Amino acid sequence: MDSASYSAGLKFLRPEIALLVTAALGMTAHLFLKKRGARIAGYVTLLGLLVTADIVFLTPLSPGGFFSGSLTADRFAFYFKIIFLISAAMAIGLSFKFFEVQKYEAGEFYYLMPLALIGMTAAVSATDLITTYVAFELFAIPSYILTGIFKKENRSSEASVKYFFLGTLSSGIMLLGMALIFGLTGETGYAAIAKLLPVANGRIALIGMILFFAGLFFKAALAPFQMWAPDVYEGAPTPIVVFLSTASKAAVFAILIRLMLTVFLPFQASWIKIFQFLAVVTMFWGNLAAIVQTNVKRLMAYSSIAHAGYIAIGLAAWGETASMAVLFYLVVYLFMNAAAFGLILLFRKGDGFGESIDDMRGLARKSPLAAACILVVLLALTGIPPTAGFMGKYFLFTAAVEKGMIGLAVVGALNSVLSLFYYFRIGRAMFMEEPPGGVTVEPSFPVMAVLVVSAVVILALGLFPSFLTNFAASAFLK
Q: Does pTM top 0.85 for this prediction?
């Protein structure tokens, strides 16, 4: 590749360059500003994310691949970059309250986040096996560090170790699948592989696809690769959990979709069956396990698993309707999950936060606005109108019915009913029970901003879904 084509390709990497500058500025603030350096680094990073969002909108779309076809800047990648930036901004906003209460502010958090975002934005733009793997590791490795960044908490370190070892195992499995695909075709570019794979050994190619997908299923917390999620979500700092459960999961689904429709399109019949099976198992596993949880973080971890199952319905029924449904649901899920985990940061208990359902009793009396926002979020998570959660599930189930997968849509609806049992327990505690002793409600501006914005977005998209459906449809990856 000559220098001219290299320079031409750089204009499509403006968001990644902006994130790299943001990370560098955040690191500089943390290391050289002794007083409140960590908090200033947080403000710098938050400002950098806002600037990066503007740059994303100003960056042109590439007519094809660039950097020898290893990356592309299409509408599909653009859509996910916006999701990542919103998720990171919410996580950083919640972190201000988290570190304030814990009296320990890890400045590294604020520049590891943009570095992880660089990996995610590259991963959703990757059209080459090597680029995909490097980008995948670029956001995976900071994620392991971020999970254990709260050094005062032993369970945070434990969660980080578990996440690292299982994540390394999943990366190895994915790399083995890539090696099989490369061995069959001798190519690393998606387009070149797509031409050669149909005439290669079908059985080995199918095994390669399954191994490749299995490594990604781990990050998406699809059963039976979800064993890490409850322990990691419970042990990791709450703002990190918001980021891992939304941005990281969206990145993995984006990689899966691009692989499905390029490299493994000849095996569509096979991956449809795989996603049908995973959707059913994941939904039941997540919802049934969540019913018996008393810790809200663990409950939401199993809820996150169940929602990955709902998204898998869209992958199984892939088409124009399913594409729009999956992209719509990922945005809605971002706001639902961020607010649900942000709820925990309202409750002060001793030197930390109240994480059990009992700690949340009587919230409606102490903070009616926060309780009203969480009620909207719980209705959306269950899939009750007029919320965007209902519209998201409606689109997913409609896509399944259009493809003749009526049974899969029925199973999805049944699981939505199951989820009502454990979401209702949180609502009942907030509105129908007496406040507990030893727990105080301390609303802060960042937390309340996340709750209010999430509730407003969920209601707005529930009443006027076309605001997002048109945008999602335009990002359809053919």
A: yes
